[in-house]
Write a structure and sequence with these properties.
alpha+beta; Beta-galactosidase, Chain A, domain 5; nine-stranded antiparallel β-sheet; six-stranded antiparallel β-sheet; 13 helices
């Protein structure tokens, strides 16, 4: 029993410290970043694009003040700037800022010079010249378009003549979801061969206000050289630049739910980098973060042409969509754009299973409950064995207590006699930890699913839970909203975390209790500890834990009743 209690306390402390390090501390950092962003938004300064200081402006004014090609698809709305050929205006029309379906659509991309909360975030493709005398397209190049609108069935073609013998053409196509195909073609009408390098970049100014939770990666992301590369904003600010070589792969910048990533040809040799450029910003958090790549040099002979095809993903990180693109374009590990965490082998199947159940029952909330039942069924053999052993341990408590009193002055003899008792009765003192050991990796895997799965965002449950990816909005300390009192985060403990704590306490009462009073008090404190820890976690996770506890209680009652009946009839 001492081993059982020690392991339970150790796991609890591990979760507690992990919660503080991965959740509370990042929350504080996020609040600080949001404060800095708010200060910039209020003052309008500093205001700069890389190497080009200027005042910040409203993104709508910037968009209206420049020639553009509009984008219209079932999922995307925005435009491409003809100046520079930049993808710098994009909204995700199927996703809203709040749970209100009439709230503004999620703004993904914004032009340089835009003020917070939609600071500059854009993708750009071009060529780099081998010689400074070769004029290539830049951010100031004004392209000519053959159409005013880009649609899934209607690509557009941009052209620019450098007046030195090179004609650059760019054909942009888009599907009905989130993938752009950029076909760059250069024709050499001059008298000499020209050496060029394909180039692409995704750049973002400042750290977005929603960033800061270490439990999910946000920042530079890609798969290069067959390896997942992750660079958080803070790491890039500290290190400045991370460069690497690769053949194919993909790279970009990711948020919790959204991704902007470039996918070069998978046989193309390239040099990639993730970088941070503070420029002349007074506020270091308002510098530019950048993911870019340069392909191998290509020589375009006189009278010849060369074509380069790149893809750009800009949208929500839906697992089925990412897997579809991975198959369609042979993109390596594109599903890892979603931060599945250490338990990838569990998290991804869980995500697919939840989606399948949600489609079947029509509710992600009911899917979580049904998912929990399935987990209980799958782990039933171990649970039966564990519960049976715990029932036997509970029946032995009087004998164990008497043995401890009898050998109170001889701890070694006490331990020997107890081990003989366990061996004779064929019970294990650590059997009660088996369900917890099983539940810990499941807990963290499901936590990832509920936290990073776009399908959980703004998904309602029942009653007051309108977003299962957010914490329970109620709190016991203001009578669940009946008292008009604003409370700090530390005191926001809602109804579902309290129900979870009660269910955990009830489940403990069915388990063998430690004979030592101090240990028993510590054991009884654990539901309070877990209630506090889970109070600010996603409501869907708390609902899962509560429902799992209730199913566990039902199992224990049934098995203990069955064992008691067998003992009576024996």
């Amino acid at each position: 029993m001492n081993n059982n209690l020690f392991l339970a306390v150790l796991l609890s402390l591990g979760i507690l410290f992990g919660f503080q390090y991965f959740y509370v501390k990042p929350h504080q950092e996020a609040a600080h970043s949001a404060y800095l962003a708010q200060q910039v938004a209020k003052t309008g300064k500093p205001a700069a694009v890389v190497d080009t200081p200027q005042e910040l402006h409203d993104r709508i004014d910037l968009i209206k003040g420049a020639p553009r090609v509009t984008i219209a698809t079932p999922e995307l709305e925005g435009s491409i700037a003809l100046k520079g050929g930049r993808f710098d205006d994009l909204a995700l029309v199927k996703y809203r800022e709040t749970e209100d379906p009439n709230s503004p659509a999620i703004i993904l991309l914004s032009p340089a010079g835009a003020a917070q909360p939609h600071a500059a975030f854009y993708a750009e493709f071009s060529w780099l010249g081998d010689a400074s005398a070769t004029a290539v397209p830049t951010a100031d190049t004004l392209w000519t378009s053959d159409s005013a609108q880009l649609k899934p069935d209607h690509p557009v073609r941009l052209t620019w003549d450098n007046k030195q013998g090179l004609v650059f053409e760019r054909t942009i196509a888009v599907d009905d979801a989130a993938m752009f195909t950029i076909t760059d073609r250069v024709t050499n009408k001059g008298g000499d061969a020209v050496k060029l390098y394909p180039f692409g970049t995704v750049a973002r100014q400042g750290i977005p206000p929603v960033v800061g939770r270490s439990v999910v990666h946000e920042g530079g992301l890609g798969v290069l050289g067959g390896t997942l590369q992750e660079f958080k904003y803070k790491k890039l600010m500290d290190d400045g630049k991370e460069a690497m070589a690769s053949v194919g792969g993909w790279l970009g910048i990711t948020d919790k739910y959204w991704l902007v990533a470039m996918i070069p040809a998978q046989d193309e040799k390239l040099t990639a980098q993730f970088a941070y450029n503070r420029a002349d910003q007074k506020d270091p958090t308002m510098g530019f973060f950048q993911s870019d790549y340069r392909g191998d040099a290509v020589s375009v002979a006189a009278g010849d042409s060369y074509q380069n095809v790149t893809h750009l993903f800009a949208g929500a990180k839906r697992i089925k969509l990412l897997d579809h693109y991975a198959d369609q374009f042979s993109i390596p590990h594109f599903d890892r754009a979603i931060d599945f965490g250490w338990f990838y082998f569990m998290t991804k199947p869980f995500l697919y299973l939840l989606a399948m159940l949600a489609n079947a029952v029509g509710s992600i909330g009911l899917a979580v409950l049904l998912f929990t039942v399935l987990l209980k069924v799958l782990t039933l053999p171990l649970t039966l064995k564990s519960t049976h052993s715990m029932s036997r341990m509970k029946a032995l408590q009087p004998e164990i207590k008497a043995m401890q009193e009898r050998y109170a002055d001889d701890k070694m003899r006490q331990s020997q006699e107890m081990m003989e008792l366990y061996k004779r009765e064929k019970v294990s003192p650590v059997s009660g930890c088996v369900p917890m050991l099983i539940q810990i990796p499941i807990f963290f895997a499901l936590y990832k699913v509920l936290y990073v799965n776009i399908e959980m965002r703004h998904a309602p449950f029942y009653g007051w839970i309108t977003d299962m990816s957010a914490p329970d909005p109620t709190t016991v300390f203001n009578a669940f909203g009946m008292l008009p009192v604003h409370l700090p985060v530390a005191l926001q403990i809602g109804a579902w975390p309290i129900l979870m704590g009660i269910s955990m306490f009830m489940q403990q009462r069915l388990s063998p209790q430690p004979p030592d009073k101090s240990q028993a008090r510590m054991f009884m404190f654990m539901p309070i500890l877990f209630t506090y820890m889970l109070a600010r976690m996603p409501a869907g996770l708390v609902i899962y834990w509560t429902w799992s506890n209730l199913l566990g209680i039902a199992q224990q009652w049934f098995i203990m009743g069955r064992d008691a009946k067998k003992k009576t009839t024996a």
